[in-house]
Amino acid sequence: MIRSTVSFSSFRRLLPQTTSASAFSKIGTYNRFASQPCPLESPNPTYSDEDYADVNWDNLGFGLMPTDYMYISKCCEGQSFGEGQLSRYGNIELSPSAGVLNYGQGLFEGTKAHRRENGRVVLFRPEQNGIRMKIGAERMCMASPSIDHFVHALKQTVLANKRWIPPPGKGSLYLRPLLLGTGPVLGLAPAPEYTFLIYASPVRNYFKEGSAALNLHVEENFDRASRRGTGNVKTISNYAPVLMAQTKAKKRGFSDVLYLDSATKQNLEEVSSCNIFIAKGKCIATPATNGTILSGITRKSVIEIARDHGYQVEERTVGVDELAEADEVFCTGTAVGVAPVGSITYQNKRMDYITGSGTICQELNDTISGIQTGTIEDKKGWMIEVD
User: Fold this and answer.
1) In the record, which positions carry N6-(pyridoxal phosphate)lysine (predicted)?
2) Inter-residue contact 354 to 327 (CB < 8 Å)
3) Which has the closest alpha carbon to 286: 315, 306, 325, 319?
């Protein structure tokens, strides 16, 4: 249960003064689903489209900065998700026997809203996140929102938190959709109720290195995923297990951990939270999504862009021994973008890679960033404008 649900009249006072009547009507529809409406304790003053939240955008990192609103919708077993509601960002109540708390029945997604120089706000391929959540929900025996519902909810969350979208070139608004088994369950079984929730936070660089090259450590003692497991879906239970290896690596001065396959320990899989690519000459290779590797949306986009630019891209088994022959290595992900890797240490041997100007990594990063920010024409229809 959300403790503070926003009434339509209160929410309207918080929206930009230039917001259209149609936008009000869209947001107003959510108010019909409010279970416990109550007035806002401290309404913020109205603001215009030109106003921003009081944030030092130049010092923005990748940490949680709570924004004004979150989106929430519920669904009982055997039913479909209906329209949700926008509520003040805040804590939620869960039963101690909620499926997500007892059995880890939960998924999450990540995408970003970008503010362009012309003031327009856009999302990058949000339908792909909705598709991935739906696939993950099927694997985890969960109800899931439709793709249209998913994208519509993202747009409403962006609109409600528009003043938190950084100025052009200063970052983006990171959106975190969650799908949680919130219904109570004692025996091991699917939860009887599910909650779809989206919250947001302005962010910039994911790694503390910023745009500088990463230095990775190849992990041999811990696995990220196993065959026929859930490594290929974005379930919450995939992420806590990487923390021990990641923490140990960071204490030794590494940026993150690169995992090997659990069966042979001979092939590359993923970094803790992003996909990996190696490049030599005009050939780029990345581990195939064979059931243990997450099908990243940035990964998919980078593959397509690289092929458009004349590179040969192979999705295949990539042996750890190939690291010694690579010219470049880079990571991809919603949070990290296209991040260069400067070095990888494997069995106490450090391998260094080309980074900086003129690299494949920079070419691909500049292209995908340009499409997102509007400096490069979007010929693929990837960008969705938030009305």
Assistant:
1) 234
2) yes
3) 315
Q: Which amino acid is present at 326?
A: A
Concatenating the DSSP letter of every residue in 137-150 gives: HHHTT-----HHHH
- Whether 20 is covered by a domain: the verdict is no
Give the count of domains, the chain. 2
CATH of the domain at 141: 3.30.470.10
Q: Choosing from 26, 234, 250, 282, which is the catalytic residue?
A: 234
200 bridge partner residues: 175
- Does 24 fall in a domain? no
Q: Are residues 97 and 224 in the same domain?
A: no
Residues 210-262: pLDDT tens digits? 678 999 999 999 999 999 999 999 999 999 999 999 999 999 999 999 999 99
The domain boundary, picked from 176, 203, 230, lies at 203
Residues of the domain holding 127: 69-203
Residue 122: inside a domain = yes
Residue-level pLDDT at 78? 86
Confidence of residue 48 (pLDDT cuts 50, 70, 90): low
**How many C-beta neighbours within 10 Å does residue 213 have?**
21
Q: Which tokens is 327 given?
A: 């010219």
pLDDT of 207 reads 76
Q: Considering only CA atoms, which of 212, 199, 201 is closest in space to residue 64? A: 201
Same domain, 90 and 155: yes
Q: Which CB contacts under 8 angstroms, 24+ apart, belong to 186-191?
A: 186/97, 186/102, 188/103, 190/77, 190/99, 190/105, 190/141, 190/142, 191/77, 191/98, 191/99, 191/100, 191/105, 191/142
Q: Identify the pLDDT of residue 209.
A: 66
Helices (H) and strands (E) in the chain, counts: 8, 17
Q: How far apart are CA 91 and CA 68, in angstroms?
A: 13
**Could you give the CA distance from residue 255 to residue 363 in angstroms, rounded to a whole number?**
22
- Is 59 a residue whose pLDDT tops 60? yes
Query: Which residues of 9-120 form beta strands (DSSP E)?
Result: 69-76, 85-88, 106-108, 111-115
Q: Count CB atoms within 10 A of the CB of residue 293.
A: 23
Same domain? 82 vs 190: yes
Active-site residue flag, 380: no
Q: Tell me the pTM.
A: 0.86
Of the candidates 186, 22, 159, the residue with the CA atom closest to the CA atom of residue 96: 186
